[in-house]
Amino acid sequence: MRFRHALLLTLLLALLMTAFTSLGPSSSRGPEGLGLSSRVRVEVLMVGLDGREVPVEGALVVIGDRRALTSSDGTATVVVAQGRYSSYFKHPDPRLAVVLMDLVVEHDTTVRVVFELRRLGLESASFVWGGNGSSVTLEVDVPEADFAFASTPVLFGFSSDGEFLRLSSTPDDFGYFSLSLRPGSRNSISYPVNGNRELAVLLPSSYVPVQLVRITVS
After folding, report:
1. Of all residues in the chain, what percent carry a pLDDT higher than 70?
2. 191 with 102, same domain?
3. Are residues 109 and 131 located together in one domain of the fold?
4. pTM above 0.85?
5. Those residues with Cβ within 8 angstroms of residue 146's Cβ, 6 or more apart along the chain or in another chain
6. Cβ-Cβ contacts under 8 Å for 105 (sequence gap 6 or more)
């Protein structure tokens, strides 16, 4: 009986080994081997304050646990199993806000991410003067987009004695885009004002730098 049991066990093991061998190497049993993976091609573009659209090299693309940097043509490709993923798109300029979104991958997919910078004119402005505690409340009409963020406003005007003033916490055209806005609507936003001089006249050239993000998935 023991001999018969040993013989049956040997035959069973041989059959199992034959079955596994016919399936090929184990790597082919992953999502790619089963045809459940998809390629996600991401294109990142930038529209600067001059209105020119250019590809972005070095943007970080994260989809699930896969990550890549865009090349000189602004594209990066990752391969993932089909499913829903938390995705992350980061411009190489650290001042621009990071974009987070859920991405559903059911087939080969192209994601187009466009970062756009604009100077938005002011619809209204009101000041509270108090030395170091001065602040300004502004209203701006934000264009339609998937995401929108504001940086520090750049305010031009004259003091009561006629001195030209520029009030902003950054010497550049824009600083960090740290304030989230509601796209497609009028937004009221408040900021501290740096400087010891009060504006008596606010010039229409004053603006709020805004970062818009538009995303298309196909």
Report:
1. 81
2. no
3. no
4. no
5. 101, 183, 213, 214, 215
6. 38, 40, 63, 80, 81, 82, 83, 84, 85
